[in-house]
Amino acid sequence: MEVPKKIFKGVRMMKRKLAAILALFFAVSLVLAGCGKKSAGNSSDGEVVTIEAQTAAPETTRVENLVKAAEKLNEELEKEGKKTRVEVKTKVFEGSWDEYAKQFMLAFKAKKEPDIYATGHENIGWLADGNYIIPLDDLKDSEAYSDVFPALWDAVTYKGKIWGALQDTEARPVFYYKDALRKLGWSEEEINSLPEKVKNGEFTLADMIRTAEEAVQKGAVQYGIIHRPVDGPDFQALAYDFGTKIYDPDENKIVLDKTGVKKQLQFYADIAAKKLIPENLTQMEWNTVHRTVVNGKALFYFGGIWNVFNWGEDAFHDKLGKVTPEWVNENFGMMLIPAAEKGGKPVTLSHPFVYTVSAHTEHPDLVKRLLELVQDPELQTNHNVKTYHLPVTKAAGEDPEFKKNVTLGNVTYMLDYTTFLPNHEGFPKYSKALFDAIQAVELGKKTVDQALKDMEVQLKNDLGDQLTILE
Amino acid sequence: MEMTGHPVSQPVFTASERWKKRLPYVIAYGVLALTTLPVIFMYAWLILRSFSDKMVYGIIPVDFSLENWRFLWSNIDQRGSELPSIWTATRNSFLFAGTLTVLEVMIGTMAGYAMSRMEFPGRQSLLKVTLLLHAFPSVSLLIAVFYILNFMGLYDSIFGVVLVKTALQIPMTAWIVKGFFDDVPWDLEWAGLIDGCGRLKVWFSIVLPYIRPGIAAVSIFSFLSGWSEFLLLYTFVISDENITLASYLQRLISDPNTVNYGLLSAVSLFYMIPVLLFFIFTQKSLMQMSVGGGKYV
Amino acid sequence: MNVQKSKWKLPAVMLGPFLLLILLFFFLPVLLIAVLAFTNMDSAMRWEFHGLENFRKMIADPNIGLILKNTAVYVGFTLLINVFFGFFLSLFTTYFIQRESLGLFFRTVWMLPRISPPVVYVLLWLWFFDPSEYGILNSFRSLFGLPPEPWLNAGPMPAVIVANGLIGASFGMIIFSSAIKSIPKERFFAADVDGASHWSVIKDIIFPAIRWPFMFVTIWQFLSLLTSYEYILLLTDGGPLYGSEVLALYSYHKAFQHFEFGYGSAVSLILVIIAVVCSLLLWRFFGMKRMMGSAKIE
Does the CB of B2 have a partner CB in chain A at under 8 Å? Predict the structure, then answer.
């Protein structure tokens, strides 16, 4: 059989095209490969030391502050007559918290991790256990950290050592819609003194539920109570409120305090049974939650002060769109989570962010100096005001710019009543199991006892010998 | 206008017979339209959403605006930090998908030819194993692949990810190519061999062009997967300069509290356009198998 | 002697890069995973041998029963959609539709789910299933005076199956369409001249032509579904309360949310074993060996 001539001509054309394309792509890919390989972050050629700092979006001020701190450090170094200069390279990660942690783990193993890694304090557990970070005990004795709010040190202590430099903290108040209380016949004075009553234990959790019921019955609001729709730290605040033990620092084990957790689950079962919450709250989207709260459809909302920031960034209000902090303060009050018993102590929960230092860093001294300089009250305030967080030192709390902020100034007192999540690595599993239990009782799929039993089985499987059970 | 089932000369039918003949067509069109309608609807919404600032009742656009398409000519500012230019991301996506396609086509055609034409010990098992490789979930391989990449010094490099992605895809690629090679009439190669060309030359200059539709099919699948690849790049590449369109999109939704749906719709459409075009242009090749001499039944 | 050597050379060259790549990035990782499955590697990325501990844990896991059931349901039903609806689509766009451009249009529309970025595709479905009165399905219901339903909570499995099915169908659609298009036109003419009904045309001409692609698509999609988790992750994240959690997603959750790499690898290993066993069974069932035939060589 003869091979048709047409195929040959087509072949020649195609061959040439193919070759050209291949050549181009090869060249490109070579270039790509060359660009792809990065040189290691830490270079020390004597004069300029590059320190890499990473945080997660969107609070870029966490690392930008380090850049400013580096400027000050360089001034100091010059005064000391030293030749080295420090340059801070910043990286901002966008994605979920799990991905953020995973990237750090892999980067560390490949020796491409940042020197300073800003993360939530609860990660200290696994970071320390895995030898990813170095202890920072000397920071506690330094001058810059001498006026840190004492309670905050608990958040960065693990196995008796300090592992993180406190960067910021926040509060998770309960927002209440003033107009709803007015509809119930409360006077202005009563409305505005509510936070005070909560603070000294006069207004308890039971009072809160009762008021919410009244509001819904009288039609003042659609929902009595709203809480976060997804797994998160806030649920533990109620645990602490009931005096539930979650963690045993001496044994370094997670604790399942069955009596305490039962009270916790009962609370959620009750508010669901009394129809105080939307039917499928644990499956709602954040957008819907924000919209419900901002439009005054709920009386009490277990939120976070950064929600004020959220409500100003996106148009949640049906008529006003984005709302100003002034508007929020006019229409909503903020209070601690009421005590469980009369005369008891109210609580809130904070989730401080900390700077941790990689164990591979080549310049631990310079890094520590940076961490001291970054505590400057002005830098802290700049970050706090922009991102709605609270300061870690008393000096920053006194900063006039900070005090000017109408929301933040009002809630700083909450830091005296705050609690923290444990630093144990297994805590996220506890958190998820608890959230699953809460979801089950709120949806009416399980009774409190059933949910508690299932939670016990789940935790025993997940945590094994890292769990202690208290009856 | 290509006809598949319609004869040239039609025998005479009665009215009811004609109806009976037509009924399946009617049903076919009907069912097709019914099931396709929701899909069309969804994407129509996507288009509408991208051209309007706000939507009433979630479906009706309030106004027409090009605001959401501003990423084409300016960098988006998101919560204080500026996103890199969409064109950087596009270029990186193109480079990644392109390199991936070239590698896959090259390695796939060689392997497919070997699997189709050559006899070597272990051939049966190789074919079987290649198909079974698809049983391994990429998710569980991630950590193991990390160790290997790191060992080779290819962590945080796009080329490393290209290699991994190629490896994950070539089993399927080789199978598809093998299918095409199976249809090439042996006489073609024989003639070439008789004329004095070596085996390799015959392969390259005679057989390969014959399976152009096969190469087109493989190209579109490779390009598509490279274009939409996200997880591997996200896990193994950490430098900011290497952002691709997929990561760009991810950034837009990283904070569930502040998602701009209009912008998201516009960027998604922009993302889908190149592949859509590619698909339409290679359709003909995709549908066209070797003409004549087919051994299908 | 020389014949033997040259017999190896060409295959070696042609197969070389292929084999090298799959060895490096497939076999090696799989071996690693098999090893990791017997360790207790966690976030510290150190490991110690743990024997069968991980597997014991899996059996004791309170959710494992539901997860296995979900996996079976998910794979079974989605496979049906993928293969049969895919065939249906290809049949309609190549055989019943006369105009090529119309067929092309439909085929392109059905490719859209596959080429959309997963995030966006899921977003569209979330809007479709939105529990408020503004969701598409619920708007439809309100036309009939019915109250809105929380679709994703009440029926996470159907939602997940439909969403994935639409994507999978396009794969079969392309493969089957090519197969149908390559059937020589003369057969159709002949059948029509003989006055054959559509059904018998489909049965006698089209079915035999697609037997091979059918088997391929079935096995391939089966494996894809067993190991896929991305869309489920985005749509329902396995919820509510593990209602739509499948084995692959479970492995992902354990490995990358709880950083239990050892345990996650063990789950993956079980998944792989199930996958391989089932495909071997399918392979036997379809008589693949016969279909592959021997190579055409010198």
Answer: no
Determine the pLDDT at residue B149: 85
Q: What is the pLDDT of residue B255?
A: 67
Rg (CA), chain C: 24
Q: Considering Cα of C203, then C204, then C205, then C210, what sign does the dihedral take?
A: positive
- Closest by Cα among A50, A51, A46 to A83: A46
- Token pair for B287: 């549908």
Domain span at B19: 15-65
pLDDT tens for each residue of B93-132: 888 888 999 999 988 888 888 877 777 777 777 777 777 7
Residue C78 lies in a domain: yes
For CA atoms B51, B54, B59, B61, the dihedral sign is negative
Q: Which residues of B228-257 are buried (b: 16+ CB within 10 A; e: fewer)?
A: bbbebbbbbbbeeebbbbbbbbbbbbbbeb
Q: Chain B contacts of C104, Cβ < 8 Å?
A: 280, 283
Q: Which position has the token pair 């995030």?
A: C119
Tokens 């309100």 belong to C142
* Nearest alpha carbon to residue B228 among C268, A106, A92, C230: C230
The Cα A441–Cα A282 span in angstroms is 11
Examine residue A71 and state whether it is found in any structural domain, yes or no. yes
**Nearest-angstrom CA–CA distance, A437 and A327:** 36
Report the number of distinct structural domains present in chain C. 1
Residues of A in contact with C241 (CB under 8 A): 436, 439-440, 445
What is the ipTM metric for this complex?
Answer: 0.74
Residue B151 pLDDT > 70, yes or no? Answer: yes
Q: What is the CATH number of the domain that holds B133?
A: 1.10.3720.10
Measured CA to CA, the distance from residue A102 to residue A99 in angstroms comes to 5
pLDDT digits (tens, 9 = 90+) for A277-305: 888 788 777 878 888 899 888 999 998 88
Q: What percent of chain C has pLDDT over 90?
A: 4
Cβ-Cβ pairs closer than 8 A, A with C, add up to 55
**Under a CB-based contact definition with an 8 Å cutoff, are residues C28 and B148 in contact?**
yes
Whether residue A39 is contained in a domain is answered as: no
Is B155 found in the same domain as B25?
A: no
Chain B hits for A60, Cβ within 8 Å = 80-81
Query: Which is more confidently placed, A214 or C238?
Result: A214
User: Model pTM?
Assistant: 0.79
SS (H, E, C) A448-470: HHHHHHHHHHHHHHHHHHHEEEE
Does one domain contain both A321 and A428?
A: yes
In which region does residue A388 sit, left (phi positive, over 0), alpha (psi from -120 to 50) or beta (all else)?
left
